[in-house]
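Hi R.,

Quick one: here's the Triple QxxK/R motif-containing protein sequence you asked about.
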Amino acid sequence: MGRKDASAARIPVEQYRKQIGKQDYKKSRPVLRATRLKAEAKKTALGIKEVALVLAAILVLLLAFYAFFYLNLSSEVDLDLDPNEN
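And here's the predicted structure, written out as tokens:
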């Protein structure tokens, strides 16, 4: 009894799926292949967000590297300039 109600609800969905399937068969194989390759490329492509994060990380590392050496060299220069030498 419950089965009749459940199967009746699926009929429009199955008709819709069959209609979509028929439309796909109307397309030629090269078009289907190109569509699939385009979808795969879109899925695996790097987004702008990922590229920006990588560039920001590189920039932060370079600035930290520069600041480390700047502070080390500036402290050595200050020690070399002893005003009591002359």
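The longest helix spans residues 48-80.

Cheers,
M.
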